[in-house]
What does this fold into?
Amino acid sequence: MHMAKGTFCCGAERLMLLLLALVACFIMGAMCAEQMQSLTLVAQSNEKVWNAVAVVGDRIFVAGPRWLGNGSAVEVMTMNGSAVINASEALPYPDARWNAWSRGVNPARSFVDVNAIHLDPLGLLWIVDTGAPDFGGQVLPNAPKLVCVDVESDTVVRVIPVPLSYLHSNSYIDDVRFHGEYIYATDAGFPGLLVIERSTGKMRRVLDGSPWATARANRPIRMADGHIVRGPDGKPLMVNSDPLEVSSDGQWLLFGPLAGPWARVPTSCLDNFSCNPGNFIEKWRDLPPVGGTALDASPNGYFYYSDLARNAFCYFPELNGSTSKASDLVRDSRLHWVDAPFLEPVSRQMYLAVPQIDRAAVFNGNRSLVQWPVQLFRVPLPNWRPCRSGNK
It folds into this structure.
């Protein structure tokens, strides 16, 4: 068949362009795959289970609940270059007395059960004491509190007690976030939120028993190996209002049960004690079961979360958080229930405590399945546009 020379050249050029496009797609796909970050081991323990971490300079603060078998509730360790820190180097923080609670000791000035630690925008370390020494147990009088520590002087500068009148018998103050003069706390035991005026300690309880704060029976906590986490009673573990973040623009509090879905409520309503947030709450995002979250509060920052069902740590643009696709920052079998991550803003490293909470004795017929050592990792944050991983 006769073909004009010009036609052949045009066809060859088109074929070449198509080949170049295919090569470009292959290269971009490879670059996308290479974006998965690698873990660096920072510290490990053969006796303590850390579920929370915060970093200031070369110091690492760690904590873990009493029901995970911990002695000292809060400890501090010092980094020494790239050397892996051993738990034997950790010291009680802010001192031994605060970590010396036992039954019969006044709980107002000692830690009964620390579930979370968090640095506020001023650089102060807040320690969340649930006040309940046993998992699912009753809160002790004068025990639930928020303890504020100045990490420069290593001294307690503020204690905000949480009166039992703001709690239920099965309450479990889980974590905190900050917005101006207000502190928000979730109750993972009985669904609801606490709003605390920082300067006065005045507080109120909101969204008490709200469906948006309540764990749903059709959303069990399923781990990467397929098993469903069960409570001491043998039934699927239901964790109510647990993770929370304040949006980068400060306009919304984002929160939900551990297994989702997440809702959002205006901070302007939460901060106005005459406003009922139940009238303004709305769905935000259908996240999978998460161990913990962090938010890069920069204008184009990302929302980070640990995906328990995939042993993955993921992120998505927070600005369009309700619709944007998520990507994996890292996926590794060692990340079995990352709990409360910490974003170190100077080094742009994310610190990941891996307490393996579902393997605790309380969830396994009083037999611990924890695989020692318990580890603390860090991973660098991305500086690229995220690749889509297909997870929500």
Notes: The longest strand covers residues 155-161.
